[in-house]
Every structure is written in C-alpha cells, then in structure tokens.
Amino acid sequence: MSSIRYALLTLLAREPLSGYDIKLQMNSRIGPFWKVGSNQVYPELSKMEGEGLIRLQGTEQHAYRPVRKLYEITEAGREALIQWTLERGGVETVRDDFLLKAYNSWLVKPEEMAAQIEEVKKQHEERLAAYVAKVEELTAMLDAPDSHDPIASTISVVEFGIQYERLYIEWCEKLLKKE
Amino acid sequence: MSSIRYALLTLLAREPLSGYDIKLQMNSRIGPFWKVGSNQVYPELSKMEGEGLIRLQGTEQHAYRPVRKLYEITEAGREALIQWTLERGGVETVRDDFLLKAYNSWLVKPEEMAAQIEEVKKQHEERLAAYVAKVEELTAMLDAPDSHDPIASTISVVEFGIQYERLYIEWCEKLLKKE
DNA sequence: ACCCACATGTAAGGAGTTACATGATTAC
DNA sequence: GTAATCATGTAACTCCTTACATGTGGGT
C-alpha cells in the first residue's frame, strides 16, 4: 500500500531532485494523479536515505536561502521500484465527492443541481486544457517513438488523464440533459 | 474535507439502515466509488446520532444474533446532506497506483509490463461486467424516467462507472500496442 | 505594506486500513 | 473441522491534510 515512497522513487528514477522539486513536480507534471505535502516529502526522504534507497548527491546554496539538498536514486532504490512496478495490486476505489453528490441529485432542485454540474464541468475543462498542452509539449520533446524513453511513459499517463477528463465532461453534459 | 459522514447520510436518505447494511451497500452498490470499514461506520453513526443528524428508528433481534440497530435520517440530516450536495469543492486527485506503475514502464522489460497490463485489464473487465448488470437491474426497477427518483440518480452514477471502466480497458489496450 | 517564490521542516488531527473480539448457525 | 454469514464494536497503526515556523529578496 504505502505508495508515497514509490511516487518519490518514480520521480527520482528519472533525475536527481530536491524535496522541493518533488513537491512542485507532483503538483504539475503528474499533478492531479498524485499530490504530496512537505510534511510527507521530507520525512520520507530521510527514511528512504536511511534505508539506502536514495542518497544525497550534493547540496546547493543560493545566497540567503536554505541549503538545497539534491537526492539521487541508488541501485537498491531502482530495484525496489522495478519490483513494485511489476507487483500486482487490487483495483482502486475512485473516491470522488462529486459522484456522491450526483447520487443525491434526486434530493435537490434541478436548477440548483444544474449550476453545480456546470461548475464541476468547468473545472474539468480547465484540467483537460492543461493536459492537452502538456502532451503537445512532451510530444515535441520526443523525437523517436521508443518504449524505453521515460517521456513516452509520461505521455501515456497524461493521455489517460485526457481521456478521463473528456469522459467526465461528457458525463456532466449527459446529467444536464437529464435534469 | 471529504468525510465519510456524507456517504452514510447519502445511503440513509433513501431508506433506514443498520451499520452492517451500510457496510454491505458500500461494498456493492456504490461499491468501488466508496468503501468503509466497520471501524468507521459504527463510531460515526454514534456521533451523528449525538448531533441529531440521524435517529434510532428501532432495533431487531434475530435469535442468538446481536441486536440490529436501524437508523433513519432526521430532517436536520437531510438538510445537512442537501447543503453539502450543493456545496462546491475542488477537483479530486485520481490516485491510482497503476498510473504510477505505467509511469515507470520505461524501466522494465516490455514483456513483463505486458503481463502486468493484461492483469489490470482483466480486473477492470470484471468490474465493467458487474456495472452493466447493475444498470440493467436498476433500469428494470425504474418505470418512468423521473429526475426525482433516487434510482435515476443511481443509474447516472453507475453509468459513470461503466464509462470509466471502458476508458481504462481501452487505455490498457493502447499500452499493449505500444509495447 | 503585503504577498509570492524559494527551501527546509514540525505539529496536530482527521481519514482510512488491517486485524481482532464475540458467538451461534449453516454449508463444504 | 474449517470457513462464511450475520452484527456489533475496539485497537493499533499508517496515511494524508491543513496549518504553522523560519527568513530574505522581488514584484505590485
């Protein structure tokens, strides 16, 4: 279960990063799929360093700022990540508040629900636009289609995001028609 | 934030239920969207009873078994649920392990990843079949299309599930082609 | 004046998982 | 005899969210 550590390793397998970098990438690149707060990143990095999954590559100091600690993945970390990647797990629960709210739509006035649906739809349209831009950016970076290129893997995942947002938007439209 | 209490109220708004009933319904009807364990259900029911959102409708005793406590929603509970339903919230994070694993596919041998993808695809196909059966069952129960019928709301949510599983399966197939 | 970006971290608490405890009954 | 179903509940634990704390420079 404990997947946050694999989320960190996933990013570190590609390039050395600081805790702050990881936090930023989580909230943009694989953004809406995974999120972490600083409270989880820093203690987890320490733990993982203690277990030999990552090591401190070096530190940087820019003027007045706190020391920036760059971590890199170790061979043991890479192996642990590969093992986890091939491990099988159960299907996840979706756990989306709005699905529950839709389940309650029979309780409220149709016009009030419609306003709510429109709002949710708008949020997902914004995400869709961000994903589409991301895929275009990534595709430009990838010259040859190669399944061993990390960028190709990233594109696949973001494409899932695009399909998901499209489905969500279409579903919202179907709900609006029913009201 | 997204608290379990509204999930309980959502079910109780439709019919009086015991904690055990709620647990069962969570793991079948709105199943893979939400889940609860008994550790959460029973304390939360007590809390909600104390706050006047639900009340004990009565108890049943079948032979040797523990007393079955049936709860029903109160007017205050209904109002709280309606308010929450119309409240706006942010978009949720998807948080699916397999998306992270796919993000790591560049690290592993294509044939090993393919086996993993096939396995995941199979799990989602099983879910899809369950949802399709559920929708058919619900549609048969609904005679007139009416947006104030709770069954209509349920169908909408399960239809989301169907679309989601289909998208997941198609995405798996696309991954397999890329390998 | 005030907030944001940078970069590390801690604290408090709520949410969620896994396992356990009771105890008779039915099914393999 | 082993497990599952019914029905309640507790215990121990991990995970995740929200907020705080530090401290300077740059933008509005």
TrEMBL record, chains A, B:
Residues 8-81 form the Transcription regulator PadR N-terminal domain. It comes from the Bacteria. Residues 94-177 form the Transcription regulator PadR C-terminal domain. Keywords: Coiled coil. The keyword Cytoplasm does not apply. Gene3D superfamilies: 6.10.140.190, Winged helix-like DNA-binding domain superfamily/Winged helix DNA-binding domain. This is PadR family transcriptional regulator. It comes from Gordoniibacillus kamchatkensis. The lineage of its organism: Bacteria, Bacillati, Bacillota, Bacilli, Bacillales.
